[in-house]
Amino acid sequence: MSANPTTTQGRATRERILRAAADLIAERGATGTSLDDVRAATAASKSQLYHYFGDKHGLVEAVVEHQCATVLGFQAWALAGVSDWESLEQWAQLMVTGVEERNGRGGCPIGTLAASLADTDEPLRVSLNEAFRAWSDAIRGALARLRDNGLIAAETDLDRLTTITLAAIEGGLLLAKASRNAGPLRTALDGAIAQLRANAPARRARACA
Predict the structure, then answer these.
(1) Claim to verify: residue 164 and residue 71 sit in the same structural domain
(2) Phi-psi domain of 44 (left: phi exceeds 0; alpha: psi -120 through 50; beta: other)
(3) 199 shares a domain with 137
(4) Does 28 share its domain with 98?
(5) CATH number at residue 121
(6) CB within 8 A of 124, min separation 6: which ones?
(7) Which domain holds residue 41?
(8) What is the C-alpha to C-alpha distance for residues 140 and 171, in angstroms, rounded to an integer?
(9) Helix, strand, coil % in the chain, rounded to nearest 5
(10) Would you say residue 139 lies in a domain?
């Protein structure tokens, strides 16, 4: 059974192990990452791993929770600032810049975990699906502000546009990971933004013509 650390040193040790495990699982997948791999990467003892995480499944659960919280925290913060086309472009560029800084590596932590675990672990599939829903809610909130500011037509199906946007992110990140190039993500986001702009109110469309 895992235990939550009660000391500063214990929390730091658990966080160090968790971050290393997250990096290994992102690179090799959950199946391709063993506890011995994590021990080698962190110089942690077997007793520490079992103390903090219980077993490998407990460690993978903790990685899922950590990665989802990290991605959703960033996206909630970044999307909260979206209220017009310029700020939407800034949000998109922020993601592209992050991929460029990683030289195209990593992809989407939530998407990578879903690809690895959704067909084999039902509780973790549910957790990952909930993370995607939370991300969708943040995107939808940004689109609702665009609509409220008169940039998207009032009758537009925001749920549909939210799915299109999130699918563009996930597909773009996967292609960027495979190609080691942020270009596919930029192209995918450009396509999603173009779709959003196509739903501008008719009066704006005529004014811009």
Answers:
(1) yes
(2) beta
(3) yes
(4) no
(5) 1.10.357.10
(6) 60, 61, 64, 113, 117, 118
(7) 1-54
(8) 18
(9) 75, 0, 25
(10) yes
Q: How far is it between the farthest Cα atoms of the chain?
A: 68
Show which of 54, 82, 99 is a domain's final residue.
54
By three-state DSSP, how is residue 181 classified? coil
DSSP collapsed to 3 states, 95-157: HHHHHHHCCCCCCCHHHHHHHHHCCCCHHHHHHHHHHHHHHHHHHHHHHHHHHHCCCCCCCCC
CATH code assigned at 5: 1.10.10
Q: Exposed (0-12), middle (13-18) or buried (19+): which is 176, by Cβ within 10 Å?
A: buried
Q: Domain total for the chain?
A: 2
Query: For 174-185, how does the pLDDT look when each residue is reduced to its tens digit (9 = 90+)?
Result: 999 999 999 999
* 59 in any annotated domain: no
Report CA-CA distances (Å) from 180 to 72, 100, 171, 183, 185: 23, 9, 14, 9, 11
| pLDDT tens per residue, range 61-115 | 999 999 999 999 999 999 999 999 999 999 999 999 999 999 988 889 999 999 9
From the list 143, 122, 107, the residue with the least C-alpha distance to 25 is 107
Q: Cβ distance 159 to 92 under 8 Å?
A: no
pTM above 0.85, yes or no: yes
Give domain status of residue 84, yes or no.
yes
